[in-house]
Design brief:
By secondary structure, the chain is α+β, with helices and mostly antiparallel strands. It folds into two domains: 80 residues; 227 residues, BirA Bifunctional Protein, domain 2 (2-Layer Sandwich). The chain has eleven helices and nine strands. The protein is elongated. Bound molecules: 3,4-dihydroxyphenylalanine.
Length: 337
């Protein structure tokens, strides 16, 4: 008898665990426990035929199996009733994809710029966005009270600190930390008190610096031209105009032939055929000296250009502020990685 009860229990267990819905549970309940046809009820009724000596023990086993079955059925019925499917979940519906982001247009361009310079043998350098007056100005040969400081519309912080107004301080950090020959670019955020369609108080620059024996202005021109042709079109022209920056001598600004009209003249280049791209020059002897290098034995070139401008030209964006509003309707138009 005990064996029979054991196999009954096993059969019950396997039926319960494969019961998929409420109807199956009703069927199981009827099969085992219903007063008329239930297997267990029938067995209980045969109890009086069992040998009186064994009857109490068999009776106990039967009753405990009955309680066991009732508990398991109640549990199974409960969990079915509260399951998501019972509450109306349609498991046959197609899944919902989590929204997938894309790289920000600035980061797409950033990667492209860094790759081009890495291929040209430059390495990546970094500096802090919160800078000291020394690195942002003094070591770059901006004398105290020099009017060139005013053109930078600086955000000053407490404790003599400021938000860097350009990536040029990374030149100084690199020159102080490394020995020539060196070739680095530093790409990152810079800050100025300025905001309109072509200015954002936070924007991005990439700084280049090469210092070694015998570096000339021709190296600078070749580097800028190669970069311009890689990032835009391979017929791009570059022109340099004399200009003044305290940390270079001679200093220049450079323009690219308009990447949209190839120099023919269009609305983007204001009919001039040229687009202003950045500043450049030969590292000023005073800058080399201030950071511990002998301007008699090494020379170098430096350049700085606007990353946001490049992104705007590549993606056809005409208001820089759109780049930083984080409007997904805008950002989703540039699905790059
Ligand atoms: N730092 C300058 C600016 O933001 C740009 C610049 C000009 C960088 C000349 C240079 C350079 O490296 O040689 O206005």
């Amino acid at each position: 008898m005990q064996d029979r009860l054991q196999s009954l229990r096993e059969r019950f267990d396997s039926e319960i665990s494969s019961a998929a819905d409420a109807a199956a549970l009703v069927r199981i309940r009827a099969g085992y426990l219903s007063r008329k046809g239930g297997v267990l009820s029938q067995l209980l009724r045969t109890l009086k035929e069992v040998d009186p000596a064994q009857r109490p023990a068999v009776g106990d086993s039967l009753n405990s199996l009955k309680r066991y079955m009732e508990e398991r059925l109640a549990l199974a019925e409960d969990s079915l009733a509260t399951s998501p499917v019972a509450q109306g979940l349609d498991v046959s519906l197609p899944g919902r994809m989590p929204p997938l982001g894309t790289a920000h247009p600035i980061n797409q361009v950033r990667r492209e710029i860094e790759e081009i310079f890495l291929e040209m043998g430059f390495s990546l350098a970094h500096g802090p966005e919160v800078e000291t007056d020394y690195f942002n100005f003094v070591a770059l040969n901006f004398p105290i009270d020099h009017p060139a400081r005013d053109t930078q519309d600086t955000f000053y912080l407490e404790g003599g600190l400021l938000l860097r107004t350009h990536t040029s301080p990374v030149q100084i950090r690199t020159l102080k930390a490394r020995k020539p020959p060196l070739k680095i670019i530093a790409l990152g955020k810079v800050y100025r008190r300025d905001s309109d369609v072509s200015h954002s108080p936070m924007f991005h620059q990439v700084e280049g610096l090469a210092v070694a024996e015998g570096i000339t202005f021709a190296d600078l021109k070749g580097t800028v031209l190669t970069f311009a042709r890689r990032i835009f079109r391979d017929d791009t022209q570059v022109r340099f105009r004399p200009s003044y920056f305290p940390f270079v001598e001679p200093g220049a600004e450079f323009d690219l032939s308009c990447v949209l009209c190839a120099g023919q003249g269009c609305a983007t280049c204001k009919r001039s055929g040229w687009l202003e791209m950045g500043g450049a020059g030969m590292v000023h002897p005073e800058v080399l000296r201030l950071s511990g290098h002998d301007p008699q034995s090494v020379s170098g070139f430096a350049f700085g250009l606007g990353v946001d401008r490049i992104a705007m030209l590549k993606f056809g964006i005409d208001d820089i502020r759109l780049l930083f509003e984080n409007d997904l309707r805008f950002l989703h138009q540039f699905p790059g990685s």
